[in-house]
Write a structure and sequence with these properties.
This protein is of the alpha/beta class. It folds into two domains: about 1-120 and about 235-265, Rossmann fold (3-Layer(aba) Sandwich), CATH 3.40.50; about 125-235, 2-Layer Sandwich (Dihydrodipicolinate Reductase, domain 2). It has helices at about 10-20, 45-50, 80-90, 105-115, 125-145, 165-180, 235-250, 260-265; strands at about 1-5, 25-35, 60, 70-75, 95, 120, 150-155, 185, 200-210, 215-220, 225-235, 255-260. The strands form two sheets. It has a seven-stranded parallel beta sheet, sandwiched between helices. It has a five-stranded mixed beta sheet with strand order 8-9-7-10-11, covered by helices on one side. Strand 2, helix 2 (about 45-50) and strand 3 form a beta-alpha-beta unit. Helix 3 (about 80-90) packs parallel to helix 4 (about 105-115). The model has no long low-confidence stretch (mean pLDDT about 95).
């Protein structure tokens, strides 16, 4: 049985992760916590979330933990994740991190802790999105510079970072494959008389509205045709189940930083193309 702690337990993702863990026979939730001033501290999770049998009280921070978990799942904020990673480094606890919005310096600090742990760090835990990452590379390799590239993403109105971590990952993959500069070539705003599109630019468009869970489209536009690769998340359960899958996978791996491409076995998978009859 894999012992799991969950950070940000009352957040939109934290709640779904706790439900996913309750439905997995290989995992046991041993600790769930929120910020120290959360109004629901001390109440049992069975009452707060309706999860049968989960009588653990909601804790404020990591200080009250009595049973050290095998892995900590963290979908919170950059500041909170850094604090949790420091604790995990001190205790030797594996981590699964889906937090996005890190500044460059924060990410370097985070990786300094995770390098000495077993950790999955990924902007998106969805199986479908990670297949999209793989297919994005294949499409860019085949289509090359003959097609213009646009990346579009949409999320709920409460999401704080833009573009999303998933959209930035798609940008990184396409830029690397096409030999583009992910800092210089993206275009985040078009307004006024911007002139003809340059050959190297990659458009990045962001929508924030309502309760959209998450949508990402990679568009390759050529003369006379276009190809669109789209992933739409219908609920946060897809991310929660991916996080649980990552937690079960990472606890048996050597120290190091992994992502969902590793978890799903897509890291070094090659595309061979169609075979002749």
């Amino acid at each position: 049985m894999i012992r799991v702690a969950v950070a940000g337990a009352m957040g939109r993702m934290g709640q779904r992760i706790l439900w996913a863990l309750s439905e997995d026979l290989e995992c046991k939730t041993v600790y769930a916590f929120e910020r120290p001033d959360h109004p629901r501290l001390g109440q049992p999770l069975s009452t707060l979330l309706g999860i049968p049998g989960l009588e653990l009280p909601l804790q404020g921070g990591l200080q009250r933990m009595e049973e050290i978990p095998d892995v900590l799942i963290d979908f919170t904020t950059p500041k909170a994740t850094l604090e949790n990673a420091k604790w995990a480094f001190q205790k030797g606890v594996a981590m699964v991190i889906g937090t996005t919005g890190f500044e460059k310096e924060e990410l370097l600090e985070l990786k300094g802790y995770l390098d000495k742990l077993r950790a999955v760090l990924a902007p998106n835990m969805s199986v479908g999105v990670n297949l999209m990452f793989y297919l994005a590379r294949v499409m860019a390799e085949i289509l090359g510079d003959d097609f213009d590239v646009e990346i579009l993403e949409a999320h709920h109105r409460m999401k704080k970072d833009a573009p999303s971590g998933t959209a930035l990952k798609i940008l990184e993959i396409v830029s690397q494959t096409l030999g583009r500069d992910p800092q210089r070539d993206p275009v985040f705003l078009r307004k006024g008389n911007v002139g003809e599109r340059s050959k190297r630019e990659i458009g990045m468009q962001v929508i924030r509205a309502g309760d959209i869970v998450g949508e990402h489209t990679l568009l390759f536009g050529g003369l006379g045709e276009r190809i669109e690769l789209t992933h739409r998340a219908h609920s946060r359960d897809t991310f929660a189940k991916g996080a649980v899958r990552a937690a079960k996978w990472v606890v048996s791996m050597p120290e190091g930083i992994y992502d969902m491409q590793d978890v799903l076995g897509l890291r070094n998978r090659s595309y061979e193309g169609p075979k002749d009859d």
